[in-house]
# Entry
Amino acid sequence: MKLLVLGGGSGQISIIKKAKEMGHHVIVSDYYADAPGKKYADYGETVSTFDIKSNIEVAKKYSIDGVLTSGTDQPVYTAARIAEELNLPSFLSSATALKVTNKMGMKKLFKKADIPSVKHKFLQQNFLDRELQDFSFPAVVKPLDSQGQRGVFKLTSIKEIREKFSEVLSFSRENKILIEEYYSSGEITVSGWVNKGELKILTITDRITYETGPHIGICTAHIFPSKFLPEYHQEIKNISEKIVKAFQIKDGPIYFQMLIGDDGIKVNEIACRIGGAYEGDFMPLLTGVDILQMMVNLALNQKIDFSPLDRYQLKENKKWLSVQLFFALPGRIADISSSKEILSLDGVSQIGFNFKKGDRIKKIKNATERAGYFIISAVNKRELKENLKSVYDRLKIIDSQGQNLIIREAGEVL
# Structure
């Protein structure tokens, strides 16, 4: 069968490979001609994942049988629109897909359904100071329809908001931005699968983030199990089920981000996709559930084996695992660690670099400057900490002065 995958970035490679392993022909559409996922596909098209009309033409050109995206937010809506236009299998209506990819629709439904979230407003560029008279600073501004922390800033005054407004809008197709009161908190992610409206939570991880200047929320690691799991498991489950019902999510993967602080749980954002921190790669290792295979079968309306999902119980999972999304200081790369060497270390199941010798790494502004990732596991917290230290002792991106540019303290936090 022919499957159109929207997006060819590093986060999409695993689902492209999985579809190929399952015997399908894969077409990848991506704005970048040299998107890495295109190397693994049968065909590549240089089309933006935001361009619904052009992707419909691509779908017609190849007479596709299904369409999907994985690990990236905005193409979820494009996929739903293509499926509806061409009468293809779709696990989300375009109405639901829009609500989970546009923060205005998302936040409005949070309020209507009494789903807890931080205090927020939507602003136009010519907003009046009095619109924020009841707001406390610092505050966080965000585009309504972007991803990867692009255009997200922690600001301390109305003056700073005005100064950053155009930059925030540059990452959006909307003419408004979202402003939220900053909530001092820990972050978690909830990953799972919905089958006929019933949610099964697979993992709850601590989402470790990094701040540099006004740039916040840049994810550097996920750690399983979450430190919040013992106390908040039932509340997380209840809120997640409430979200599924409110957004009318019937089938498929979910990925919810929540904040936990002194005022309890606040839902930050939600998505109907596999997480972008290589959840599709570590789920089989951690839970026994091949969520990538399930996603491909769902998109092609093929039979899904739900028995691993049914057998799995989150609270009985005693494994420890971390996905390290490592960053590096700015500089030109003179040398870089061997993937083979890192894979030989205890607990490491996967590693990837986003740069090579001769490339220049830019200053960190959002997730696009990520230097690479690795997945590492252990039988307990102590062993995971030791395994992480062992990797970071050997993980190197060296500049011409012989300095190791890896920022190990951003992810090595156990």
In short: The CA atoms of residues 153 and 215 lie 5 Å apart. The mean pLDDT is 95. The chain has four domains: 2-90, 119-181, 185-317, 321-410. The chain has twelve helices and 20 strands.
